[in-house]
Amino acid sequence: MSTKRFESLTALTREGLLLRVECRCGRVVLLDPAKLLDRSLAAGGGHLISKVASRLRCGDCGARPSHFGPG
Q: Which of 29, 32, 37, 53 fits 9 for a cystine, CB–CB 3.0-4.6 Å?
């Protein structure tokens, strides 16, 4: 059995997966990695999930994500 590691938004898009982002307050959102990649690159960001997720904020409490990965 193999396990895939998804480190980029491109890899999630290629596999047809969404990016699941969780906050400490309990909010969970599923984001389209292709749209997120477009916005990140337009803003001068990168394609690595860790870099993009570190700039996200919760819409409810304003905190940074506590966990993120394929969803």
A: 37
CB 49 within 8 A of CB 38: no
Q: Which tens digits make up the pLDDT trace of 23-53?
A: 999 999 999 999 999 999 998 888 899 999 8
Q: At a CB cut-off of 8 Å and minimum separation 6, what does 61 contact?
A: 23, 24, 25, 27
- pLDDT above 90 coverage of the chain, percent: 75
Supply the DSSP symbol for 68. E
Element (H, E) at 28: strand 28-31
Q: How many helices (H) and strands (E) does the chain have?
A: 3, 3
Using alpha carbons only, give the angle 62, 25, 20 rounded to the nearest 5 degrees. Answer: 85
How many other C-beta atoms can be found within 10 angstroms of the C-beta atom of residue 10? Answer: 15
